[in-house]
Amino acid sequence: MKTTPFRVATAIILSAIGSASADDEKYVTCGSAIKLTHVESGGKFFLHSDERQLQSGSGQQLVTSVQDNRSPKGLWQIREGYGEKLCEAGTPVKCGQVIRLMHAETQVNLHTHGIKSPISNQHEVSGFGQGGDGDGGDDWKVVCPAGGYFSAGEEYWNRDKTVQFRSVATNRWLGSSSTVKFTEQNCGRGCPILNNLEVFGRNTNDSYSHW
After folding, report:
1. Could you tell me if 94 and 157 are in contact, meaning their C-beta atoms sit under 8 angstroms apart?
2. N or C, which end of the chain is more exposed by having fewer CB within 10 Å?
3. Rounded to an integer, what is the distance from CA 85 to the centroid of its chain?
């Protein structure tokens, strides 16, 4: 995988059970467990969740961006969209495909809805469901980089390129920002998520929504 700050889409991919193929090397595949790095924050922060609950809004499981590339709490498994046909393990994920991202450790899905996020008052992003079961708020469309004037856009989610995710339910973009972090001022003394970045559903397609 590339590790330059502004080109990292996925830092780690653990291939689904089975022998590796050329597609496994180049593309993100269904069933894979991945880590996502955030581009605008310099590729140093990873999409992360654990058993903590939001202390406001929905009260669902907390999702933030964390500066820790070794934590297993940053692993997310690629699954088919809610109510959609099974995406078999090892199948390359197409650009434009609707997927769910299930947190590998706690088995909740990356979720968004219209509730305000705790710091920036955008849309809250949380972990929702049990054992991978949830609802349509867990669905994200994979948005790949567009091709240039002389080339077509990507057909599959290339693991070496940046990617975006757009909520099917809200049309918001999965985002984070190096300027929107949890501090003692907005989280209190002894804050357990101090210096974590807020993850939110963003109305604007811009640099904050690239992974």
Report:
1. yes
2. N
3. 21
pTM of this structure: 0.87
Q: How confident is the model over 63-99, as pLDDT tens digits?
A: 999 999 999 999 999 999 999 999 999 999 999 999 9
Residue 118 contacts residue 52 (beta carbons within 8 Å): no
C-alpha–C-alpha distance, residues 34 and 11, integer Å: 7
Q: How many residues does the chain have?
A: 211
Residue written as token pair 């299930």: 102
Dump strand ranges (E) for 6-97.
10-14, 33-36, 46-53, 61-66, 76-80
The tally of CA atoms less than 13 A away on the side-chain side of residue 23 is 16
Contact 64, 71 (CB under 8 A): no
